[in-house]
Design brief:
2 copies of one chain form a homodimer. Chain A contains 14 helices and 12 strands. With 336 residues, the first copy, chain A, is α/β, with parallel strands linked by helices. In chain A, helix 1 crosses helix 2, helix 8 runs parallel beside helix 10 and helix 11 crosses helix 12. The longest helix of chain A is centred in the N-terminal third of the chain and has 17 residues. The radius of gyration of chain A is 25 Å and the shape is elongated. Chain A starts with a helix and ends in an 11-residue tail after the last strand. The relative contact order of chain A is 0.12. The model of chain A has no long low-confidence stretch (mean pLDDT 92). Strand 2 of chain A pairs antiparallel with strand 2 of chain B, so a sheet runs across the interface. Chain A binds a DNA duplex (30 and 30 nucleotides) through helix 2 and helix 4. Chains A, B: One of its GO terms (molecular function) is DNA binding. Chains A, B: Pfam families: LacI (PF00356), Peripla_BP_3 (PF13377). Chains A, B: Keywords: DNA-binding, Transcription, Transcription regulation.
DNA sequence: CTCCCCCGTCGAAGCGCTTCGACTGTCTGG
DNA sequence: CCAGACAGTCGAAGCGCTTCGACGGGGGAG
């Protein structure tokens, strides 16, 4: 284990000089800097993270709290996590992975122990129990997702309201008059996950504006549950020609069911999905979709947090604009 | 920020006593312990991680290196990562998330800086470039996946050879004589990812023993690529009545194709998948499958690593036994 | 009754780094 | 030609914790 002192001795300078070379907080002559850098390389020196954290009271670590639940959007979570980790590295931070398991305690532990300089919370619920703690501990934090009350908080999320609107507008523009929404599992709505409700909002208000008839049904996902949901929808609204799906696990079953009933996509029925791009592209029909910009969200979250840690930038809500990509699953409404 | 010294003062004892209460490394009288614990609670004390790491040269952090690539088994990776994080917590460790991006450098950085006490590497390739470094740095580590040379390394993985064998034996037992394997993308085989080759091994040797005819074809996944692969297979071996699929992205397309061709599952054709349980259950036919025990792997990896860090246990290769679950996609071979 | 040992506690010495103040020159402007 | 500014370097004081050796006192063994 090579130490700063050894590097200093090897380079013939004092320890503080080496420290300043490393941090750049004071000017150093070119020759000294080179000598020091050479010694660092030759000795294979790596600063000790603990000592650094102790002396500077900055750990250069960002905590990322991921949900324990794995019933939703797992690949998206993963993609966000990876984006967070790689973006953090470009800013000189490492990422500590916390699971939701510990819940609010994790916030206390991290804030108290100086393990991390700030945290990013994923899967934030409308009235998340971690928020009060976050506010009172003055822990620099960024949320991915949107709680009910955002005062004093920094949040990053997809603009789900606009997403819903975009889907309806797309279908309305193609002449569809009766559209059904296959939503997330009922539990997701009961949990008051913000994004599901905001999407619904957007869908409904756009439907109102375009004079579209909209029917929303939560759906557990999986083949059987989707079959039941679709049957009910078609029973209630036989003229339905457009589907908006916001539930990965219902996408493929829906397509299979339509196929089975002899309804051609997109000739008879159009389908628009809100889902990760991968799902849209890999489905048995290439889906017109609004994708979840996972990487963007991760990147933005880190950048907001780093800005905070540097004393730049304040509380802010960043809503990323949705983008609808037209693929093979949507087309003009059939003429009756 | 409450410190040890403040707790000590509040409790009327010396700092070292508080430290010993916390670590349990020396015996403490019951009354003193209670006084100290009370002070800790009242002041809301949390030990400073940096100081602790510096003084003890143990960070109580485990580094987890996940692949940057997101083309494979993403939910499984996530599940492993979460299992690692939660298991680590039960042993008093936190988890640092490293992406493959930094590659071997990350190993050097973590080992050198004392950021983590040990590491877990996922997605290990047969001749992984991180391995030499790992060996020479004497960094306590556990691999998830199996490299070509395991000397001096601790590894945890599913027994993919047995997995392959299990699939073939299941189909052979049902009377199937011609079985096709739809494998991972060609790139996976070119990359010499161990698990793909070991599965193939198991499949082949079991086929030999049971006198089964086996045809293996890599497949990119997705609807179109799978269609091409399946067409070729049925062209070459029209009598194929069994499929083994080891590629999440080919599962649903395969089922759709079979349905489309009027081949009923499982009456005409049996399908066995090697995939995460979620995929098997959510598919449009509930799939007979060997699932990847993600949680198990994560848990085992952490436990092996913790054992190492405690000076217990040495190098070892743990292969978890596969379990085949019979669901609705496999049945007796049709009589000709 | 004495010796020794162990239990419970304390004080002090670091762990490796950052950072502040101080010092020495060198340069610039008046 | 001198005051002041500034670049470049050093020494020393911690940051909050662990851990080692030491010490007093009570109990068991001889």
């Amino acid at each position: 284990m090579v130490t700063l002192a050894e590097v200093a001795q090897h380079a013939g300078v004092s320890a503080s000089t080496v420290s300043y070379v490393l941090s750049g907080k004071r000017s150093i002559s070119a020759t000294t800097r080179q000598r020091v850098e050479r010694s660092i390389r030759e000795l294979g020196y790596h600063p000790n993270a603990g000592a650094r954290a102790l002396a500077s009271s900055r750990s250069n670590v960002i905590a990322l709290m991921v949900p324990l639940r794995t019933d939703m959007y797992v690949p998206v979570m993963m993609e966000i996590a990876i984006a967070v980790a790689t973006t953090a590295r470009t800013h000189g931070y490492d990422v500590l992975l916390l699971t939701g398991e510990e819940g609010p305690d994790a916030v206390r532990r991290v804030a108290g122990s100086g393990l991390a300089d700030g945290m990013i919370l994923m899967d934030v619920e409308l009235d998340d129990e971690r928020l009060p703690l976050l506010r009172e501990s003055a822990q620099p934090a960024v949320l991915i997702g949107l709680p009910a009350d955002t005062t004093g908080l920094t949040c990053v999320d997809l603009d789900f309201r606009a997403t819903g609107a975009l889907c309806v507008e797309h279908l309305a523009g193609l002449g569809h008059r009766d559209v059904a929404v296959i939503g997330e599992a009922p539990a997701v709505y009961e949990r008051h996950t913000g994004f599901a409700e905001r999407t619904l909002d957007g869908l409904r208000s756009a439907a109102r504006e375009t004079g579209l008839r909209l029917l929303h049904r939560p759906c557990e996902g999986g083949y059987d549950a989707t079959a039941v949901t679709v049957a009910r929808i078609l029973d209630e609204r036989p003229d339905t020609t457009g589907f908006v799906v916001q539930n990965e696990a219902a996408v493929e079953p829906l397509l299979a069911l339509l196929r089975q009933q002899g309804r051609a996509v997109p000739e008879d029925v159009s389908v628009v999905a809100v889902c990760p791009e991968q799902v849209a592209v890999q489905a048995s029909v290439r889906l017109t979709s609004v994708s979840l910009p996972a990487q963007e969200m991760g990147r933005h979250a880190v950048e907001q947090l780093v800005a905070k840690l540097d004393g730049r930038g304040g509380d802010e809500v960043v809503l990323l604009p949705p983008e609808l990509t037209v693929r093979a699953s949507s087309g003009p409404a059939p003429v009756r």
